[in-house]
Amino acid sequence: MTLEWEQTIVEAQDPVALGRWWAQALGWVVVDDSPDEYEIRPEPDRLPGLLFVRAAQPKRSKSPLHLDFRPDDQAAEVARLLAHGARPADIGQGQDVTWIVLADPEDNEFCVLSSRRR
C-alpha cells in the first residue's frame, strides 16, 4: 500500500485571508483561490499543501494539531513572522524550551523550533 500526503486542512473564519497570510509567511504559491477553499503549496506541483476551508464555528481552545517549522536562524524567523502579524502564544510550554510558540492571525498555534546545527 502506498499513501502520499496530499495536504493538511486548516479550518478558518476567513480561508482566503488566512491562506494569503500563510502563503506569504512560507513563500508558497497559491494553487486554488476559491472563496471557501484556498490552497497553497511549496511549488505548484509539489506536495503536501495547506488547504484553508471555512470553519463551522470560531476557534475556542488550543488547536489539537499544529505545525512545527525548523529555520536556519530561529531569531530571524521569529522576528520576521512577528513583523508579518504572528503573535507570541502560551500553550503551557514553560520557560526552558528550545522552541518558540506563535499564533497566526486566527490564533492557530505553530512552533518555530531551534535552528539546525550544521
How would you describe what is shown here?
The chain is α/β, with parallel strands linked by helices. It has two domains: 1-58, Signal recognition particle alu RNA binding heterodimer, srp9/1, CATH 3.30.720.120; 60-118, 2,3-Dihydroxybiphenyl 1,2-Dioxygenase, domain 1, CATH 3.10.180. It is built from two helices and eight strands; from the N terminus they run βαββββαβββ. The protein has helices spanning 15-26, 74-83; strands at 7-12, 29-33, 37-41, 49-54, 67-69, 87-88, 100-103, 109-112. It has a four-stranded mixed sheet, covered by helices on one side. A four-stranded mixed sheet has the order 5-8-7-6, covered by helices on one side.
* Beta strands, count: 8
Q: Under CATH, the topology of the largest domain is which? A: 2,3-Dihydroxybiphenyl 1,2-Dioxygenase, domain 1
What is the distance, rounded to the nearest whole angstrom, between the alpha carbons of the first and last residues? 35 Å
User: Please, how many helices?
Assistant: 2
Uncertain spans: none
- How much beta, percentage-wise? 25-35%
Biggest sheet record: 4 strands, mixed
What is the assigned CATH homologous superfamily of the largest domain? 2,3-Dihydroxybiphenyl 1,2-Dioxygenase, domain 1
At the first level of CATH, the class of the largest domain is Alpha Beta
Neighbour order of strands in the largest sheet: 1-4-3-2
